[in-house]
Amino acid sequence: MSGEVIDVHIHFGAPSDPNDPNGCYWSKEFEKTITYFAMRLVTKTLFTKVTIEKVKEHLLKAIGTSKKVQKGVFLGLDQVYDTDGTLRKDLTSLYVANNYLANLAKENSRVLFGASVNPYRKDWEKELDYCLANEAVLCKWLPSAQNIDPSHVECIPFYKKLAHHNLPLLCHCGPEYSIPPFDDQRQKLNHPLLLRNALDEGVTVVVAHLALPLFITDNKDYLNELFQLFKEAPGKNWKLYADISAMLFPNRSFVLQDEWNNIPQDRLIMGSDYPIPMSDFSITNSSNIITRIKLFFKTLFMSNPIDKNYELLKGIGFDNSVFTRASELFANIIR
Ligand SMILES: [Zn+2]
């Protein structure tokens, strides 16, 4: 896998389907979100019945026809559990089952299995063993949607096991607008500083979206916390990284330009956030008008969304190593 260009952040999601024995589902609440309609638009299911088969076909085609990106990590999302281990289907907005993605990755050489295991599950260890045995390349959390507090003491044994196997934790940080709930109490779970225990335990932590604000009304608290962690990382031997998925949003590009010199390129990892839609316009740090125009036309008619994201990120000026860094991390996983 070493040296390959890998997109570490591709979402999967589908309504419940009687033909899916793994039980993936999304909630009625999720069907009211803008993300839901945008995803249906992007996956061309806005005017037809959306099914797990259609979502699968669409995503497999996107990664399968990419000319720039060799592999994509399809992300699972575990259900909500109380800290005592009680399953809360009633509080779960989106569930993408590990066995569904493990099988998908087995059948498709361009797909990598991004597992998701809730640390509050009573059987978390068994589930994590299953994921490791089935070639998972990372564990994904979305704390506000999954009601996981990364600083909770229940997470410590979980972190020890992730660290033992060098399995990276890809954790959403920053404001969340895609998967409910969106209340302040839950958004507090998306703060980078809550990941200190994971880092202290030796976990390879990948902070999603560089913890950047999405809208102009969002503050930079999450980003400043991430910078604080980056500052401490060398002295504490922390294995801290951030992905650059969902960067192509107008406000994010302004923040990126402002903060460019504070962002450690050697800690970044490429991702898209597909099929959650982002702006398609090219954003570049280049002041050269010819370079800007060239990039605009180069990407304007690109039909493959994974390739388009790749080219637009290249245009922003991220270092070449950012695009292959995931393959280095994944090579270190001990199964
Ligand atoms: Zn995402």
Percentage of helical residues? Answer: 25-40%
% residues in beta strands: 5-15%
* CATH topology-level fold name: TIM Barrel
Name of the CATH class: Alpha Beta
Average predicted confidence as pLDDT: 92
What is the 3D form? globular
Oligomer: single chain
Strand order of the largest sheet: 1-3-5-6-7-8-9-10
What structural class results from the helix and strand content? alpha/beta
Uncertain stretches:
none
Instruction: Provide the CATH superfamily.
Output: Metal-dependent hydrolases
The Cα radius of gyration reads: 19 Å
CATH architecture, please?
Answer: Alpha-Beta Barrel
* Individual helix count: 13
Bound molecules: zinc ion
Distance between the termini: 15 Å
- Total beta-strand segments: 10
User: Helix-strand pattern, N to C?
Assistant: EEHHEEHEHEHHEHHEHEHEHHH
Main pleated-sheet profile: 8 strands, parallel
